Amino acid sequence: MKKINTMIVGVFCALLLATSAFAADTAVKASTNAPVTVITTPTTNAPLLGDWVFTVGGSGATTTSGDSQSSIGLNLSAGRNLSLFGTSDEAGVRQSIGYASPKGGATIASTRLYGDVTVFSFNLSQAVPVDVYVGGAAGPTYGNTTLQWMAAPEAGLDVWLARNVAIDARVDYAFDLSNGRSENILEYVIGVKFRM
User: Fold this and answer.
1) Percent of the chain having pLDDT more than 70?
2) b/e string for 167-196 if b means 16 or more Cβ within 10 A?
3) For the segment 137-170, what is each residue's pLDDT rounded down to a tens digit?
4) Can you give the three-state secondary structure of the chain, one letter per residue?
5) Residue 62 clears pLDDT 80, i.e. is over it
């Protein structure tokens, strides 16, 4: 029995040494040949939920038909980065409150759920990446006006001044879901985005 144990240990050690020698020889051959291109596949098990994202900005709106009317206001949003489509996605809720100039002025607020997908990224400079996104938002508009349910396609860009701070610029075109027509209002927001 002792001879069998000694023989098994000896065979195991011989295999271990042979494997080590083969691996060392392969590493030397690989380093002396032409450069090897390593192809990696993206991981598909990325976490669904990413960083929290908060935006604080000023908003405005201008009518695109008839007499020119405008409004100014404040826009806040809170959301999460997602990885639903293998891209940089974002979803959350936006709250705005503004003052509209027609008919002596009115205070108008809106609460909208939104979703955006980054469709293009480039570098403005080495240290300033830019993300271009498209998406949509939907929710009620209320205040000193009739309650309306709105939906709006939107597009925008984030200019990342630091890893977690960006200038966010966005524009959307609202549709009145209650009456099934365009509102002929171009809404825009410029603000600061924080990623945590």
Assistant:
1) 72
2) bbebebebbbeeeeeebebbbbbebebbbe
3) 999 999 988 899 999 999 999 999 999 999 999 9
4) CHHHHHHHHHHHHHHHHHHHHHHHHHHHHHHHCCCCCCCCCCCCCCCCEEEEEEEEEEEEEEECCCCCCEEEEEEEEEEEEECCCCCCEEEEEEEEEEEECHHHCEEEEEEEEEEEEEEEEEEEECCEEEEEEEEEEEEEEEECCCCEEEEEEEEEEEEEEECCEEEEEEEEEEEECCCCEEEEEEEEEEEEEEEC
5) yes
Residues in the chain: 196
C-alpha R_g of the chain: 29
Q: Side chain identity at 115, as an amino acid letter?
A: G
Residue 42 has pLDDT above 60, yes or no: no
Sign, CA torsion 127/78/143/138: positive
CB 108 within 8 A of CB 139: no
